[in-house]
Amino acid sequence: MTVSRYHRQSILPGFGHAAEARLAAAHVMVVGCGALGCPALDLLARAGVGRLSIVDRDVVELTNLQRQTLFAERDVGRPKAEAAADRLRAVNASLRCEAICEDLTHENAEALIRPHPRPSLILDCTDNFATRYLLNDLCVKHTLALVYGGAVATRGTQLTIIPGQTACLRCVFPDAPPPGEAETCDTAGILGPVAAIIGATQAADAIKLIVSPAALSGTLLSFDLWANQRSRLDLHAARDPHCPCCAQRRFDFLSGAYGDAPRVLCGRNSVQLHAAHANGGPEMDRLHARLASAGTFTRSTAAISGTLADGTPLAVFADGRAIVGNTTDPAAARAVYARYVGA
Ligand SMILES: [Zn+2]
Asked: Is 252 inside a domain boundary?
């Protein structure tokens, strides 16, 4: 008799053959294949989740290797979703893994969950608020569990949203911070172990959702790994009876009410975009200070403009509009905006 590759998992309380079969039948969609997506995907592939869909708009960069554990030096320049899928297929040959090298937007979000067998749940491993609120709308509207994770600097946040049972993202964080206010990994840095803990916690909640939902904590976990602080907030008590999303079923982000689609500026090799935010433009002084650490920028009344350290021209206007140069690819422009302006 041969020992199953899942033996050390299947002898855990509550596991066994039935749990193994549920994992094999599950389809998990992971949006964002960076610091959080890498450890989460790796653990889910090894745990025997049958099908993984990876959505990511970026390519692997050298600075990713400090924490993005699915990639090696040879992957620099490759689309992340593709490089990750190759690695995961090598880890577990029985895995069905699909790389979706696309920018998740309000225009394609619903189509992405339709043509496939519908995912059992979605992991939010993204790095920007526009996509996070969009995923919250998508999951509440379609009653899909959403496993949220966030990590920046030395701090991590994780919660699992079960529509109809727990608070949703907008119950807990009613508005995204204004553009330029939130720290990003590109301006504030990220401690690798913080991302690994959050990604692993997301994988654990995904496994619980598939095998034994009663084991979920129903809390918002926050910690600062450097300051040794940790807290948990009860998500059942945090439901907002007036929440625009889960109570009123108004899906502002999914309907495109916040933020115009990025627009390629003809003949200028640049893309204009608008922050997906309800509260107007950025706080210009703070944003200028942060951009100054990422490149060379000057400030006027109406705009902050200059170039990032890699030579990419970037201008951010007081109304929240931005122009990203050296590209005609809206997804690339949105990625630059999310990384340096942070919305
Ligand atoms: Zn809500």
From this structure: no
What pLDDT shows up at residue 115?
63
Check if 185 is active-site.
yes
Residue 261 alpha carbon to ligand 1 centre in Å: 25
Tally of structural domains, the chain:
2
Cα 73 to the center of its chain, rounded Å: 23
Question: 226 CA to middle of ligand 1, Å?
Answer: 31
206 & 294 share domain? no
**Domain coverage including residue 268:** 263-340
Rounded Cα gap, residues 330 and 306, in angstroms:
19
pLDDT of residue 260: 57
Residue 1 has pLDDT above 60, yes or no: no
What would the pLDDT profile of 244-286 be if each residue is shown by its tens digit? 999 999 999 999 887 655 666 666 788 878 765 555 677 888 8
160 and 309 part of one domain: no
- Cα separation of the two ends of the chain: 54
Looking up residue 308, the CATH number of its domain turns out to be: 3.30.310
Q: If you measure from the C-alpha of residue 171 to the centroid of ligand 1, how many angstroms do you get, rounded to a whole number?
A: 4
